[in-house]
Every structure is written in structure tokens, then in C-alpha cells.
């Protein structure tokens, strides 16, 4: 079976997940829920609680158990109606680049006001690039290939990336998750993760994308974008409105993106479908479904060494793929072909006034292949023929669920008990085939071109986890205490032609968060927790059974913060301290794949500061800064040179000391604009500290105008988005970790033959780009 055709098991499981959620949504609207909706609206309003993390509007609910777990709006109906509303602008500053938060931990959020000004092809990485804790690297200007995150001395491989609280694709493939038009907000909790979240890599925190809430009335959104590098993108979303009188609302959207590679030759295509279905009840219960399908076929970028980068910067000689079909480095011989389905279906059931049940099943399945030049072979007649090498994934599958029962034990304490299960699996192989006569890579499953099937591997992790948490409020809800403990039991295995290895490991994960509201303007908070990271199934697939599975990474973290907001400003300052043991980093292997290795221990200390202003004569400013002192605590053996690196006491790899951001939003009548600057300081890009990368600046500008409604067009809008306005030629991040600048690697550079290069490889900022978009809701 080829990777281009999803298997019957894959489609059956996906259909089962969707149909189960749909049936649950419809069934839950019956008498079982009505039995618990007897509390009067006046009593419900009297018990309206503080907003949960990520909520944008106050919520009126009937049961205390629902109060602390519910994340959706409640719409009361009947003779006695109570409507509680608030302005989106009242909750944010800096034009949506910062939001008022109340959780007893550092939370950094951009919301829909800011998202709507950005390029529609932006990914979540582009949207959070001005938050104080992160430095973002992206290989292309239109999000076709995702990118990387550096945060507080760690990376996105240490971070849980979520959509509606469910694990989603990694940062390198984040474009597979959701279209930007369907993102309500993106929240980053650096260095922290809630106890009940289904995360196996949260040492550097979590990033959660909240999906679109379907509109009450039938309508939708349509936009069209065109830009540099021959970008063309079309998007349409249809909202069903309320279906009958069921209270069920949904939407479905489709987008198509086409662009050329900005460096060298190459064409990139993406098609994407999002589907959402929501149902809310008066007593606080809800059911929600989100499904996305993503297909993409893009050119894998070449990532330059330091020498190649400087050659490009000083002479203009590029390092991209070749346009010559006779060249082994022809762009059609360096492609990524991928199909993926993602499903999340959370359900919240208010059982009684004191009892609530939550269930969040999720499923993710992808399959496809990466192609790259494999050299040449000499045939019996003496002629040579080009060869293509593949990384073929027959399946990369993640399935899991979190079940939680919450109880209001008294008027102060809400206790929850839960269980998390996940099975994470990959089946991959490394075949080789003859390159087609036109220079393109054939499907690795086509027998006519197959040379050999290559090594085959299976790897995976099965997780069982129990957790308990208590959310307590005292002193008229001014004192907010959240304490939890999660115990993770994981069976990890790796199987290849040479054998099978496995281990069973456990991780205790305590957490304590305390927040105190001093007055209506000020809050202080304290957070301490333990988090871990274990290699993903895909990472393990690159480790043969002759190499032991790395020990789990473990982090102990403390954070102390202060918040302030009034009618003029929003301010958040936090101090943090991390101690990390068995630090796992990933080495870039090419073909968009990475191999994990351990570099011992490290510690990180620093502070984040962010401030934003409310609109003043239409202007909303924003600024943030982070100072980070990250130190490697261990000497490390370099297996390439067989020497012990004196890395102890040096600046930790990929941990710049300073990050700084500035943003300014302006709105007047229908006009809007936003400009942002980001600075990342110098950093080490090798464990030995013998290779460094200088600091750099990136920038974006958004300009647009929203017209008054015209007929069916409810919000006709035009906007222009600019990136790298100054045309800077800078490196924005290392592709991965290396031991030393002396480490050898195989390098391709444009039309040159492969050769041995040394040191790290890098992502560079794409040249100046401009995108124009026309859109309207209807």
C-alpha cells in the first residue's frame, strides 16, 4: 500500500472518532442533561466564577463543579434570561499582542484581534514570535514547513504543542494542525503545564491553539491572498448556525496554498480542511469536536553551514535546490509528501451540582515520505544512474484519552481524579529507488523503480498515568491555590532488523501554584513543578537497537511573578529558575529528521517582562524582554572525535541571553496597522561552545482597511503584510544540536556535488516578502 492512500484501518478509526463525538453531542442534548438544569438562572448568575485560563468571556454556570472546568460560553434561554458580556478589547493590550491573565503561572497570549491582522498563511509560530520567552526560526515566509522554537534555554522538542488541549504535530510540521483563520488565540505557558494535560514533553511548557467557536447564525468567511514567491492562497469557511433547535453549531473550511521556494528552485503545495462542531448546555455541560485533514507536497529546504551562509551573504551565491533535472540535487528529488488527520473531541458533563466528568479523546495519524539525493550507481553496461533515498513512514500514529472526575468537596476546594492513556507509534523504513528519467523522485512504493526496501524499524511508547489535583480558593477568592500530582508509567520500545530493546520507566510530576489577588489591579503568583521529556517514537526510529534509549529528561522549575492592569496598561513580570538533568537534544540528520542524544545537566535562571498599553488616540504599544543565564553543568563525550568536551560552565547551547520585542498597533475608523520588531542575542550552537551565532533582528508590518458592510459582504477588508522589511540576511537559529564545530556532516549546496562540511547548519531569514489579502465575512 502506498503512502498516498490512507489505510482502511486509518479511515475507519477516524470515522469512528468523528461519529462517536457527533452521536455524543446529539445524545447529550436529551433528558439526561435536562435533569441537571433545574437551578434557576438567578442562582446560576450568583455563582458565576472567575474565567478559566484561555477563556475570553465570563461564564454563567449552574454548578460549582462546572465552574472550574467549563471552557465554553453558556447561553441561557427561557423567560428569565441573563446575559453576561465583555469587550474583547477590554481583556487585551497592544492590539491583541498581550492579554490579561489570572492563572497562578506565567501565561503569554495573543488573541484574535492581533491574529486577524497577520498574514493568513501564518502559523502559530509566526503569531507568538514577539512573546518575551521565545525566539522563532522559520525556513520559509509562508509557513509551509513550520519551524522551531527556542524558549528559556530549551526547544519546542521539550514543549507540548496542543490544539484545544490535545497533542498535535510538532513545530517543524505545525502547519498541519489548523488554518490561521480558525485560530481564536494562542497561549504559551513557558516552563509550565497543567496536571491534567496529556503531555509527555513539557519541560519548556505548553503552547495551546484555541479553535474557532461556530457562529450562531449561518454565514462564513472567505479570503484570497497573493504575494511574492508566487504565493496564491484561497480560504473559505461556512458556519452552519444553530442546526434546527438543537443548539448544535458547526463549521467546515477549506484552504489551498501554492508558492515557490524563496531560495533556489522548488514548488510547494498544501490543501487543508478544518471541521468543528460544538454544543453547549445551560448547566455548563458541553461537547466539542475538531477535525483537520492536511495534504502537502513541498520542497525540503537545504540548510547551510556557516561557510555556505557567509558565501551567500557576501557573494549572493545561493545554496538552494537546483532547477536542472540532470542534477542530483534537482528540487523534485528533494520533496516531502504527507497526509495527516487530527481529531480532538472533548466532552464536559455536569452530573450533579457537585460532580462533573471530563473526557478528552484524541487521535492523530500521518503517513508519507521524504526524498533526498542518494548518489549514483553504475549499471552493468557501465552507465550511471541517479538514486533517490527515502525516509518512508508507513504510519505515525498517536491515540489517547484523558478521563477526569471532579468533585466540589466544600465551598473552597474542587478535587479531581484522573487517568491518561496514550499509545504513540511509528513504522518507518529507509528504501532506495532509481530516480525517474525526468529527475524527479518516484513514490518509494513503486516497484518499477525500487532498488531495495532498506532497514525497517518500529518504535513507540505506551503511557498510563494517574493524577490528582486540588483547586482551592480562600479569602473571598483572592487566594488561589492549585496543587497536583501526576504519576506517569511509560513502556518505550524500539525494534529493527538487529533486534528489539525496551524499557519501563516512571516519572513523578508534582505541581504547586499559588496566586494572590492584592486588589482589582494587582496579582502575585508562585509556581513550582517537575516536568519531563522522553524521546518521541519518531526520534527513537533513528536509533538502532545497538544504541541505548536515552534516559528521560527531568526538570525542576520555580517561578515567581507579578501582574498589574488598569485602564491604561497591562504588565507582567516573572522570575524563573530551572534545573535539568539528562538533557536531551536533537541532531539534525537531513530530510527533516532528527536523532536524540544526551548532554548531561544544565541550569537556567532569568526573568521575563512584558507590558502593553490600551488604545490611546488609536495607538496601542507593546514591549517585552527576557534575560536568560543558562549554563551547561556537564562535560560531554564527542563520539565523532572521541574526545571529552570541556563544556561544563559554558553558555548552554541554543540559549541566547537576551530577547527583546516591540510592537505598535494603530486603529482609526476602518484603518488598522501593526508593526513589530524582535531581537535575539548571540548564542552558542555547539555543546563545546566553539561555534556561535551572532544576534539578529526580524520585523513585520501589517496594514489594512475594513470597509462598511456592502450587501452580503459583512466585513470587506483589504490588507498588506510585509516581512523582513529591511531585507536582512541573517541566521535565525541552528537546525539542531552538535557536539563540536569539528563534527563532520554531508552537505549539499545548490548545484554542487555533495561534500563533507563541518559544524552546525542553520535556518536563515527569508528575503523581503509582501502579501496582499482580500477578505470578508458573510
UniProtKB/TrEMBL annotation:
Pfam families noted in UniProt: Plug (PF07715)
Entry membrane topology: Multi-pass membrane protein
InterPro entries for the chain: Beta-barrel_TonB_sf (IPR036942), Plug_dom (IPR012910), Plug_dom_sf (IPR037066), TonB-dep_rcpt-like (IPR039426)
Residue intervals of the TonB-dependent receptor plug domain: 101-195
Secretion signal, residue range per the UniProt entry: 1-34
Alphabetically ordered keywords of this record: Cell outer membrane, Membrane, Receptor, Signal, Transmembrane, Transmembrane beta strand, Transport
Composition skew (Low complexity), residue ranges: 44-58
Record-stated family: Belongs to the TonB-dependent receptor family.
Protein name: TonB-dependent receptor plug domain-containing protein
Organism in which the protein naturally occurs: Asaia spathodeae
